[in-house]
Amino acid sequence: MLAEDVVQGMRVRYPRTGTTGIILRIEHIRGDIFAELDSTNLLYRIDQLIPASDSDKAKVAISEDAKKVIERERAFAAGNEMTEALKNIDQSCEGGG
To answer: Would the pTM of this model clear 0.70, i.e. be above it?
Structure first.
């Protein structure tokens, strides 16, 4: 992004890590311009930031899938299937070390 395009309160994304956040402040350091994001409180060079889109819908779908997986794992651990699985192992650690 260009320095002229960046303003406080703008939602941006750092594509290298996928970090998104709202710009809290803009700072000039040694000739470069940095923006602090509210999500990490870290400074990011503004030429490395892009405007963030509303990709929160995808995050909601992922968290719902994760909730289903957790519920399924809890049901497995509480049921007889887990007890049967534990009966079929010899409780030894074969990892070596």
So the answer is: no
